[in-house]
Amino acid sequence: MNAPLIGARVARKEDYRFLTGAGQYTDDVNLPHQTYAAFVRSPHAHAKLKRIQTSKAKQHPGVLAIFTGEDMQVGSLPCGWLITDVHGQPMKEPPHPPLAQGKVRHVGDQVAVVIAETLSAARDAAELVEVEYEVLPAVIDMAKATAAGAPAIHDAAPDNTCYVWALGDQSACDEAFKKAAHVTRLNLVNNRLIPNAIEPRAVNGSYSRGDDSYTLYVSSQNPHVERLLMTAFVLGLPEHKVRVVAPDVGGGFGSKIYLYAEDVVVTWASKQIGGRPVKWTGDRSESFLSDAHGRDHITQAELALDKDGKFLALRVHTTANMGAYLSTFASCIPTILYATLLAGQYATPAIYCEVKAVFTNTAPVDAYRGAGRPEAAYVVERIVETAARELKIDPAELRRRNFVRNFPYQTPVALTYDTGDFQATLDGAIQLSDVAGFAQRRKASEAAGKLRGLGYAAYIEACGLAPSNIAGALGARAGLFEAGEVRVHPTGSVTVFTGSHSHGQGHETTFAQVVADRLGMPIENVDIVHGDTSKVVFGMGTYGSRSLSVGGTAIVKALDKIIAKGKKIAAHLMEAAEADIDYDSGVFKVSGTDKQKTFGEVAFAAYVPHNYPLDKLEPGLNENAFYDPTNFTYPSGTYICEVEVDPDTGTVRVDRFTAVDDFGKIVNPMIVEGQVHGGVTQGIGQALLEGCHYDTETGQLITGSFMDYAMPRAEDVPSYALATRETPCTHNPLGVKGCGEAGAIGAPAALMNAITDALSIYGIQDLPMPASPQTVWKAIRAAQQKAA
Amino acid sequence: MYAFTYHRPASAADAAALALKHTDGKILAGGQSLVQAMKLRLASPSDIIDLGTAKDLVGISQKGNQITIGAMTRHAAVEQSAEVKQLIPALADLAGGIGDRQVRHMGTLGGALANNDPAACYPAAVLGLGATIQTNKRTIAADDFFKGLYETALESSEIITAVTFPAAKRAAYIKFKNPASRFALVGVFVAQMDQGVRLAVTGAASCVFRVPEMEKALGAAFTPESIAKIHVSADDLNSDLHAAADYRAHLITVMAKRAVSKALGQ
Fold this sequence. Notes:
The structure holds 2 protein chains of 2 kinds. Chain A is built from 19 helices and 28 strands. Chain A is an alpha+beta fold. Chain A is globular and about 95 Å long. By secondary structure, chain B is of the alpha+beta class. Chain B is 32% helix and 24% strand. Chain B has helices at residues 12-21, 34-39, 75-80, 82-87, 89-95, 101-104, 109-115, 122-129, 142-145, 212-220, 245-263; strands at 5-7, 26-28, 47-50, 60-63, 66-70, 132-135, 139-141, 146-148, 151-152, 160-166, 170-177, 184-193, 196-202, 209-210. Chains A and B meet through helix 3 and helix 19 of A and helix 11 of B.
């Protein structure tokens, strides 16, 4: 038996091609007779389209066609999740046309598309399209969006409200507040983020006259869902006539889950121009303007505690920005993926959360790494830390007093935690981060004129989306299973097809480890294929840290079928009873004898069935499985952050960051660490650097490039101290929980708790994210002026 | 990017002749600003006259207590120059902090000065050291060169050929970086010269400027404490997302103090 592959730090199989420039991204796909698309985008946040003149642009050399919303009468880009409001009414779903119809609703909204022989000709001609706008007052601030007399962005939502939704027992919550010995209140803004994957969105769509079919290469996290939404809801095409390929994808972070207007437009346009492929690769400026943004909540939170510091109730009111249109999963992010996580790691008996989702004249907002769960963890972990400071209880101790300790645990906000050990991750983090030495480090900082602070965040998330029946009851318009196929070749090597999609996560390695381990074969004999609807049976794609727990389990189910069939074949070959066949380390054995057949011999027999039970068994060795989870998975952990603040400039330096996570069973610790590194860095980005700003009057995107939008860089983060604790998930065979989003979920609260701890000498309780030097300096100066 | 005609002159004189002929053209001196603007279609020159092939514009030479740097010398060359490191280490240090490694291997001294970006680093050194700018037509003192936002004393078709820096007794540059672009939000170059102290501020206003009050105080006592209470008025300073004028004004004093400490080797 080889060393076990589960738990091994196997080097990533995909890295050779990525690091040597052999990756194949959508922009690398160039097809014969290809044409290029350029989009005419709205320079206004809100305007009526009075007239679009394309005659001059059409005469530009190389232009093949120009289409406007008037030309493109197709369905609306759909929203995949129906939220039912507090009155039992469906959310408002205004139309989202791929090309604007009569009105534009955010800067960057698509007005027209130019198709030309070259990219340069397409862009030149796009500038020649004359659009007459009647500029309307824009609604940018969420607070102003629902004020009386605010201009309506959609006729279907005259008060700019998509829904008001609630979860939890309001009266139980109100009663608990009446009995509280202490109430902590906190107003929080979860800052709006722009995702910024390294690879911008890109699409290459072509129509084939020969068989009336379409092929679409697209930088997407879920090609099957892209195809389903496009064919069934927008273009009305037969699904089997459309192939969607998501080749190598250079990062998504949620922003490539959705069906975007550009994808639909180029696919449709290819047929209009007679079948020549149409290519569009967004430039960075377009990414800033038109990718779905993330977060953007305004929240009032109240925590009721008894005299011993036990949590009695949590009451939360949140306003969430949807942007100008409902993106594919926009509606479920600040509801189903947010309010359900407000119990955190605590046995708070009563929780009530009300969410108002509003439309504004800004880019659509949807899932971004963590998607609702970072926002929930931020509320819970900021208010718990604040309560501890108000009550002068050690923040770790306050958490300990309130931890959920018995599993399964039914929260008051609809989830059932199957397993966890919150004390173990907290204690582990305290030890690893040397909390005991903090006082001394603080003294040393003070001696150098700096302020040092320490902050905790004990997060939980719900991953492994999702049991389809539960999701359906909550409004999902799709199933959330995953599919996998194991194809054993006649010579015994294996190709596995998964509906999950890897865009940086390393599935080609992790999944191959699972397969090779289960089949007892070298990992080199296993390849993972994903991202092509013509190869993979079906898939719901990758998001919500679901790939291994749901996609991996589907593969395991298919592997079990392979082994079961292999046993039948082996039994025949060795003239034994099927019940007597054991499979271990790549060998079928007749138990209690020395008779055995290798996996390869059995596979060969399945494809060269000369000596084979053809009367009872089909030849071949190829199995499919679909897996629908019975519960969410619940990764959790404790993060401890230490910062040093320079009071003269307001600069915050992250000095130490410790993460102790419980991801259940871990297949590849190296890949998991990489995921935590990336997630924590994005969390630090949100807390310290990133913030999307629109001009509140004109709706122009102020942070429209990296000149103004600050992404975290290597020099902004310390070397992280990481460890894991393991309580295996109870309801999937791998015992895995998911690790892709945890860092981004836990880090912002830990960081802001650390910064406010450092600034506590000024009496500063709260600070908006990002805690930029100017923000910190202004807070210090305001506190000093107040004191003086 | 729009189409343009590309020229590769062999010398500064050839370049000047081309510039005179193509009045809607632009001189390319490294391209770290102009090429970006062209890619975004914000600039549409008819002709690009690339000084990259003008051999007479490259090089670093020392003459007594002065260093002359050719206009097309890349930042990385200045950063790594033994002469510069020995005679004016603050200048090598400044060059080594411009942009990133890629920028430093393309960007040039002449390009940075001719562009006069309000947040560029080099103008602070040129003004702070009282350098002399040589063009194909004349010699311009640093104090007369920087005129305003992206504005210099250069006439059309006038090309910077070299810059001569005098050595300082002590000098240092400190940059407080814009969190997004990493350009100078406030950069301060301080130099103790034989004739007195010079202190130049970049990033804070529409154009690099000197702070005479700080120079005077530092002339009397070259210590951080001597300027701790000197504040530049916020009135004419830049205000943006990352720094309002009052924050920039505050940072000027903090960075000036730190620059003095750095110059003193503290």
